[in-house]
Amino acid sequence: MSHHITEVRNLQYIYPDGREALKDVSFRIHHGESVGIVGANGAGKTTLLMLLVGAIFPCKGEVIVGEVPVVKKTLPLIRQKMGMLFQNSDDQLFMSTVYDDVAFGPRNYKLDEREVERSVVKAMETVGIEHLRDRAPYKLSGGEKRAAAIATVLSMAPDILVMDEPSTALDPKSRRRLINLLKGFSHTKIIATHDLDLVFELCERTIIMKDGRVLSDGPTADILTDLPLMEQSGLEAPLGLQNCPVCSNISRNDLKSI
Fold first, then answer.
1. How does strand 188-192 pair with strand 34-38?
2. Given pLDDT bands bounded at 50, 70 and 90, which one contains residue 172?
3. How far, rounded to the nearest angstrom, does the alpha carbon of residue 102 sit from its chain's CA centroid?
4. In this predicted structure, which of 52-56, 128-132, 213-217, 247-251 has the lowest mean pLDDT?
5. DSSP string of 148-171?
6. Are the C-beta atoms of 65 and 4 separated by less than 8 Å?
7. Which structural domains are found in the chain, ordered by start?
8. How far apart are CA 45 and CA 43, in angstroms?
9. Where does residue 178 rank: exposed (0-12), middle (13-18), buried (19+ CB within 10 A)?
10. Measured in whole angstroms, how far is the alpha carbon of residue 27 from the centre of its chain?
11. Taking Cα atoms as reference points, which of 185, 97, 176 lies closest to residue 139?
12. What is the DSSP string of 225-257?
């Protein structure tokens, strides 16, 4: 299943109040791709992620992960293969210690405690928080909480990381550490965010959402340097490219190699 496609087919989602959040959304993501999902507030990004992981289900259309449809009866399998990092780390940290939070997923699948410990230790080592294992999550800094939340996902050894605004509330040092950490992952990464500089660094492909539809889908260097497209979608070019005398004088092909 790890080398299969994540596919979204003609998704529509309407909230109980009648608001249509997604309108006929379709795309395919191949194993190992890093894909940014961007768009202005209300574009449908978070709704899309919730549909990908089966937190909610579409009114029309379907999500397929490795040839397995995302429906209620397949959720245990889907959630072993696809892990989601929520925008608010506190939504994923609710146990009395960091260790117990990271162990929650493996224990929920009734693994032997020795296997649980191996998974937890590996996940905490990956994000560099072994020293926090006995700390209470509510006493952690924002960056430490984010790292712990990522560890709760990694302990399940997913093939696909789905992230909603992963750099929210991080100071510059913590944000840089997060980016460097994600660069080292071979997982498929699907990242919904307003942090376009993070997308420019991490994602070779970007999907722009607007009013519940896919406005554009293509190479990140092309998408984020298309100023008319960015303006149409209510976005701006990444800060790292604005007013840059070097970037303004090089071609998109050059940008792809940065």
1. parallel
2. confident
3. 18
4. 247-251
5. HHHHHHHTT--SEEEEESTTTT--
6. yes
7. 6-87+159-256 (3.40.50.300)
8. 6
9. buried
10. 16
11. 97
12. T-HHHHHHTT----GGGTT-TTGGGS-HHHHHT
Q: What is the pTM of this model?
A: 0.87
Q: Which amino acid is at 139?
A: K
Distance CA 209, CA 40 (A): 8
Strand blocks (E) in the chain: 6-14, 20-29, 34-38, 60-65, 68-69, 82-85, 160-164, 188-192, 205-210, 213-219
Task: Decide which of 246 and 67 is more confident.
Answer: 67
Crossing angle of helices 113-127 and 98-108, rounded to 10°: 130
pLDDT tens digits, one per residue of 76-88: 889 888 999 998 8
Q: Is 64:106 a contact under the CB 8 Å cutoff?
A: no
pLDDT of residue 251: 44
Question: Could you give the CA distance from residue 23 to residue 176 in angstroms, rounded to a whole number?
Answer: 35
Using CA atoms of 51, 53, 140, 173 in order, give the dihedral in degrees to the nearest 10.
-80
Provide the 10 A C-beta neighbour count for residue 232. Answer: 13
Under DSSP, is residue 41 helix (H, G, I), strand (E, B) or coil? Answer: coil
Which tokens go with 210? 């607007």
Instruction: Kindly report, residue by residue over 84-139, the tens digit of the pLDDT.
Output: 999 889 989 999 999 999 999 999 888 889 999 999 999 999 888 999 999 999 99
- Tell me how crowded residue 125 is: count the other CB atoms within 10 A of its CB: 12
pLDDT at 191: 96
Please, which pLDDT band fits residue 253 given cuts at 50, 70 and 90?
A: low
